[in-house]
Amino acid sequence: MEIDYALIAERLKLREEDIRRGFKRGIIIREEYKGVPMIAFRKKIKHIERGTALFLNENLDYIMGYPKIRRALVLNPTIKNYFIDKVVVEEKLDGYNVRIAKINNNIVAITRGGHVCPFTTKKAIQILNTKFFDNNPNLMLCGEMIGLNNPYVPHYYEEVDRGWENLGFYIFDIRDRETNEPLSIKEKIEICKKYNLPYVEPIGEFDKEDAHEYIKEIIDRLNAENREGVVLKDPDMAINPIKYTTHKTQCGDLKAAFTFFYDLGVDFMFSRVVREGYQAFEFNENDDALKKRALDIGESILYPMVDTIKKVHSGERVTEDFEIVVDSEEDLKEFLEYLKRLHMQFIIKNMEKIKADDEYKIKVKIGKIYSATNDKVLSHLNGGLW
Amino acid sequence: MEIDYALIAERLKLREEDIRRGFKRGIIIREEYKGVPMIAFRKKIKHIERGTALFLNENLDYIMGYPKIRRALVLNPTIKNYFIDKVVVEEKLDGYNVRIAKINNNIVAITRGGHVCPFTTKKAIQILNTKFFDNNPNLMLCGEMIGLNNPYVPHYYEEVDRGWENLGFYIFDIRDRETNEPLSIKEKIEICKKYNLPYVEPIGEFDKEDAHEYIKEIIDRLNAENREGVVLKDPDMAINPIKYTTHKTQCGDLKAAFTFFYDLGVDFMFSRVVREGYQAFEFNENDDALKKRALDIGESILYPMVDTIKKVHSGERVTEDFEIVVDSEEDLKEFLEYLKRLHMQFIIKNMEKIKADDEYKIKVKIGKIYSATNDKVLSHLNGGLW
């Protein structure tokens, strides 16, 4: 099918030239979902956010990408300077960002990159009361899919455990799916309550002048519980939220990155240790606490790297494994085809039928292959020079 | 002066087009030294090494750049695979690489980047018996300028201390200055002895089959003495040398980089920790040793960063300071003008007349300014978002 650049441009209030060049430079790509052709924005182009997905149906329906949430490196004076008067603290969950909307009479779950993920879509339909969309066709539910049994960010959460699967979804924003205009926090909570939708409960609301003191305590508690951090919001969502994360999160990111260090190390490393630098400064640590932080950082970098080198040395091929539960072989096939379209290399490590409440489902273990790490470690162990 | 691309191309056995494009892309730049125009290669172009310096005199005399020395990540099996039969171990000194040659009847000291450094040139003439060049006009002395009182890599070495100055030069290769063809290690030592030139004494010569065992012990000793590492060479220099460095060096590099983390952190970080990963693996450390290494890495990253943030917070501007000794204000002026030509930002922090043996010299403390680190830390401390 020919793509009508002019029509898309008009719909998104871009110039035709922006669309043409976006395709040429690989920033806009063609996709399809259940036979409907669509396009995805891999980077921000003017006001169109990265991750925007536009369906090539009659209306050219689209879902705007989720806006980038910027980060405070120090709580004080950042909060004081940034917010208007009050600041609402919500927990930042460690999963993956999903936007859910109804398009072409279908519920779709869109990942950060602008892809309709078949796994996430299926789960969203099972988890959510989709009646919400009948009454609010222009709104999208923005939330975090969390838990051990997801393909992107497997991290165990006790509160979403049901024995055969650890997976859940928590809404953090409700926004207009075209303009990204958010509801206020109060409106969001009212709607979630009305439709019995799961949402991220605010931890508290503070005056911006002394919020940093309370938030420091919250961060200490979340860190002790191995949780990710906080998102700080204006009650009316009049300005963009900002985020701040725990020491454990920084270390966890480093561990994950250094397990596959030639693939992920460079990109992850610097930002994570810089966050630690500012946190150590602001949390005004004594010598022992600072030393403990340094040890955590060093171990998070060194240990996974040495483990990977040892594994490759012993002939193993290192993979990043995740386990998901699907309803049928057909669903699995659809998901694997999706991964292939995204050029992800993987192997199926295990597959078993499991009893899920009163029906049977399939639990499948998939190993994501990081080629650079496997190949380069092997080469260096065999005497390859750097 | 017009540059004759065709003539340069012919002299270097490149195509005229290579020279033309090199200039256009900023890979070849124009310089001058004592009124003689010259060009420097900032990157390798075909067989012409990075750091090659060509003088636009009648002969178009040039000094080939010092070849890149590649690195072993593991000693075993790299040494076994790489060398022919024997391997000579020389200590790798932690200073800066200099090539010294005689051009236009002048001795010049060229840095890795292909610049004639006036400071280094003056010192080289004072340190070396330059009669060598009268008898060997086509050879260059390749060596390491080391010691606390140098502008590039200030690192204290006991063996080059003479009270008022810590500076010395050790030759590691003698090469044809156009072809880079090296003398054998034996020939090099004979010539150095003949002209009483300082050279890096070999630590030992080993069979390649079990060299890694001896070298591991050498590395342990050098590490305990806070020294940089080793360069491994074929006795005849029939193949390129390779290098391997100590844990202390990796940590020292990290410390230096993270003091100015927004300027140097990204580039330095990954390679240094990866070297640690392989060394920890190969040195087969027990849990305690591995934990100690992790702590060292973490401290080398975190502590300088926190120090810098604290300093900037207290209103200080962080600089990388070095102290050098020059003969006269004129020499100082020439050197500072050289730094300006290289677009280095600096401030003079102190200047004093000192007694140097039986004459007076000037000791000057120069602070190199890293703008990105100063500016960004200040911005983030004031609430700037990332």
UniProtKB/TrEMBL annotation, chains A, B:
InterPro entries: Lig_Pab1020_C (IPR041596), RNA_ligase_dom_REL/Rnl2 (IPR021122), RNA_ligase_Pab1020 (IPR001072). Pfam families: Lig_C, RNA_ligase. Residues 257-384 form the RNA ligase Pab1020 C-terminal domain. CDD domains: Adenylation_RNA_ligase. Residues 86-245 form the RNA ligase domain. This is ATP dependent DNA ligase. It comes from Methanotorris igneus (strain DSM 5666 / JCM 11834 / Kol 5).
